Amino acid sequence: MQSLAIETRALVRTFKTEKGHITALDNVNLKVKQGELFGLLGPNGSGKTTLIKILCTLLYPTSGEAYVSGYDVVKESNKVREIVNMVSGEESSGYGILTVRENIWLFSQLYGIPDKVAWERIDELLKLMGLEERADTRVHKISTGERQKMNLCRGLVTDPQILFLDEPTVGLDVNASRTIREYVKKWVRENGRTLFLTTHNMMEAEEMCDRVAIIDRGRILACDSPSNLKKLVSKEVVLELETSLFDGIDLPYKFSIEKNLAKNTAKMRFLLEDESVIPKIISKLTENSIKLISLKKSEPSLEDVFIQLVGRGLHE
Amino acid sequence: MNNLRRNLKAVYARAYVRIVGMNREPSWVVFTIFLPLLSVAAFVYVYKATAPPEIINSLLARVIIGGAMLAFWMNVLWGMGNNFYYEKELGNLDLYLMAPISKTSILLGMALGGMFSTTIRAIATILLGAVLFNVSFTLESPLSLGLVFLMTLTSLYGLGMLFASLFLMYGRGAWHTANLMQEPIFILSGFYFPIKFLGFFIALLASFIPLTLGIDAMNQLLGGSFAKKWSLLPVNLEILILTGLTAVFFALAVKALNFMETMSKKEGRLTLRYM
To answer: Which ipTM score applies to this complex?
Structure first.
């Protein structure tokens, strides 16, 4: 068990709501090795955040077991807390009245980091994140992207053995996302740390992770390296269509739709067993008064794996 | 890492937000010192217009002490009671709950920071009040006064720590609860008049609020001979009761905090926004 950073066994978490019980996690079994960059890929509401909260000792499982570095998250929560940290892309934590540096320092103190070490690490992290010039700016004056970088610094300043990142780049521009991804990868590799990343961004999962688990409605559907997962759809043809915007269409094939309301277009991604059906798809679109803008064959991605496993896209 | 050291660092860090925050917003000086002086002024002029000259100084001393101590009550209600709820809304609560520290350290940090910044405001109120309304204070026993002040604050902030955990359970209702508790305490604690005049039983009931006994004791030690005539209980007994209240409120606060943390993990109410 010691060589594993994270292990869950038959993990179940349900929530009682006004409408009844919701199963957020359903019999989740995962093993994450130490030093691994592990990704959990799934749509919104699939159970990713619930799993992270259990592993960070913020929630009890309803049943099953979860271990972090061999420590039981329920019975040995204090041991777990000493070696983990979590950063969520959507968090707005911190105090606006404090500066960026002070905010990171404040949270480092909850882990008992000596002042001298904390200030040195903070300055180094801010420099690496390109936040040097904003170090003494009060947090209520910084941008969303800068805030997310600050949050990442907060997660890293305690030098955790295992870092949990929950959608770390959501809402960020391309450059800021890239900076965060590159830095985290480097930090994990150079320091022998473990990363547990949740995302619904397939590119992010593919680019960052050694292994990826695909989760939907609380169940793990597959878990392997991105390249092995893509072999699940190696025989299929991936077809990408850009069309005019439409409400809905019924087609007997596996596909995802991503709507772009700003451009008034929709991107359809088909996973086809046989490319001879392409003319049928096009004629069906035409019958429904949907205008075809472009058509191309594409390389399989993790999104296609998701479509294959679930029958719909990640963003639906 | 020594557990105690880590918890002490957490206390200091959380107190830092309060202390620094107060200094960085100059506008707070107006809201926290000059505006409360207006209600003090109102009572001062009523007493000046109606009370016999020989008891005016004792009454005005009480009003100014009450005005100064009012700052602590407001801080406990809005700065302590509502604080965990605000921390949840800000997204800080998760970070505190998942840190390897006792959650009591966070409450203690909030309390110490609040005490420090509010004490500055209270001292300013007393000095300004004394100068503006020409009130003299008779300091009889600095040691007793220091002890009364300390025990009043520790018991009051113990109550604040208890509120912090309990208010969190109410969620959005906390705002209304705090509002509901604000005005009645003005009367029950005797901020601006001797509590004895409410009758023995109401005064006894009001003694569960640490401010009631604290103000009464401070008034006896600062307000001159008439203040002693209006006293509720002897100062030493009031110190003893305040010490007992400190222990009770602190124990209840720790219990409520543990209950809240366990409930949050079981039900997910505090850490998941949609719950």
So the answer is: 0.84
